[in-house]
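INFO  loader      accepted 1 record
INFO  loader      residues=89
INFO  predictor   begin
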Amino acid sequence: MLQGVSRTFRVTHPFHPLYGREFELVERRCPWGDAWTYFFDERGELRRVRTAWTDLVEADPWVVVAAGRSPFRLEDLIELGDLIDSRKT
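INFO  predictor   done
INFO  writer      dumping tokens
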């Protein structure tokens, strides 16, 4: 357990196959800069999911304000626009 504390989390990424499911947190790690959350599935196998895809992180303000009306965050659209501009040359 994470520092002896029992805590559950929910998978919040809308396209993840475990979306909406709740699991008991085993551990959180950040290898190579990526944050991962580890848990045991219903078969007792240790699994992991990106912490950003769980309710263990605060919701992105854009996602909260959009309230499901926009599938894209502003920073992602800006990045996409920059990518398109760079490919025009």
